[in-house]
Design brief:
alpha/beta, Rossmann fold, 2 domains, 13 strands, 46% helix, binds adenosine-5'-triphosphate, binds magnesium ion
């Protein structure tokens, strides 16, 4: 459906910029643009717009949206602002707005935003979402995710996102030495109303291509993240990244189960210390098997700290589990600790180590699979 767009923007220069963006966006006709809201409200109707882009920072935002809603009862209203003000979101929704986009934005970002808010979601992207699940804590999961994300980004030059959904004891921020002003709590609070593209500002960049949505700063904030909102965050983030890696709390809990359900692939991660880990993994596999008929496609097993490290040990573990082994990581405690002390990745400190090799191998498998999927 073509959108007949009415634009109200109080800043003259921004009005010019956004007008050009709208004109070049697919399926968008800019039918009217105004620097004055009084003109937009008074004169805009003759152009029959069905989509309004409204600058909500120049006036009392709730009043403005109420007025536009009255004047254009059936149009979709998307608010625009240079900064996201979470406190006003619920008032704007009540007044009749469908969403919010941070400006300036590109034609593609506008199209994605309109698709989200006009059609009620359903973003078409080929992002691969991977959840990293471990039956017990201290499995090496966070170390694996961080290094794997770096490896995927370097090999593909594609954007890679990490979501730390270990809501109570998320340690990705510590791992990357980040002190985020926004975390998954704020993202979950705002995700419904915020354009997916604007969700990007909640992710903290750690390199050109890798960014992290950090976990809660305080374990007591866990209650602030509803599962439904967490799922909205993940789905919105699909439009931002080519690869999305999700760290979840150890064990079966609402967050880890929902992250596994929503992911394209779930990695079961365990440290190969003694016999218990294998039992835990076997039990976890059987629980997933009960729910997923296509378990072999959706579930991959990775053992960390495997010694002796090599193909022989990998097939031994495979036989013991009765399930294919996606990858094994060697025990590189010194390297991993040294990296953590320096706030760097093990991959960078020793690019020719066995650990880097193992991670690179895993990344290659993921990329190959994704390329096959994209060309289908
Ligand atoms: N391949 C490895 N070899 C040796 N030690 C490792 C390896 N990977 C991680 N470790 C060490 O194991 C400990 C746990 O690692 P990590 O924090 O990545 O695990 P986790 O599963 O995310 O733990 P948590 O349950 O606390 O979230 C850390 O001290 C880390 O340095
Ligand atoms: Mg962790």
């Amino acid at each position: 459906m073509a959108h007949n767009v009415l634009l109200y923007e109080s800043n003259r220069i921004m009005l010019g910029t956004l007008s050009n963006v709208i004109k070049s966006a697919p399926n968008c006709n800019l039918v009217a643009s105004y620097q004055s809201h009084t003109d937009a409200l008074g004169q805009g109707k003759v152009f029959n717009p069905n989509l309004l882009l409204i600058d909500v920072e120049s006036q009392d935002a709730t009043w403005l949206i109420t007025e536009f809603r009255k004047a254009f009862p059936s149009a979709i209203i998307i608010c625009m602002g240079e900064r996201w003000q979470a406190d006003s979101a619920s008032h704007l929704v009540q007044a009749g707005a469908s969403g919010y986009i941070i400006k300036p934005f590109s034609a593609v970002e506008l199209k994605d935003t309109i698709d989200t808010f006009a059609k009620g979601g359903g973003l078409e992207t080929s992002c691969k979402v991977m959840t990293f699940f471990s039956p017990k804590g201290k499995s090496g999961k966070t170390t694996l995710i961080a290094n794997l994300a770096m490896s995927l980004a370097r090999k593909t030059n594609e954007p890679v996102g990490i979501i730390d959904a270990d809501l109570q004891f998320g340690d990705m921020a510590v791992f990357f030495n980040l002190n985020p002003s926004n975390t998954i709590v704020e993202a979950a609070r705002d995700a419904d109303f915020l354009a997916p593209v604007s969700l990007q500002s909640f992710f903290v960049p750690v390199t050109d291509n890798v960014s992290v949505l950090c976990g809660t700063r305080n374990p007591s904030l866990i209650d602030r993240v509803a599962i439904k909102d967490f799922e909205t965050v993940v789905n919105s983030a699909r439009s931002l990244f080519k690869y999305l890696l999700i760290d979840v709390p150890a064990g079966f809990n609402p967050t880890s189960i929902s992250a596994a359900e929503i992911a394209d692939v779930t990695y079961l991660v365990a440290m190969n210390n003694d016999g218990f880990e294998k039992q835990h993994i076997r039990k976890a596999i059987s629980l997933f098997e009960e729910d997923w008929p296509d378990v072999k496609d959706r579930l991959k097993v990775v053992f960390t700290r495997v010694e002796p490290y090599g193909a022989e040990k990998s097939s031994e573990l495979e036989n013991q589990l009765g399930f294919p082994m996606e990858g094994i990581l060697p025990n590189e405690y010194m390297l991993v600790s040294k990296a953590a002390d320096n706030g760097r990745m093990a991959l960078d400190i020793a690019s020719d180590s066995r650990l880097s090799d193992a991670i690179s191998h895993l990344a290659d498998k993921i990329i190959r699979h994704q390329v096959r999927r994209d060309t289908l």
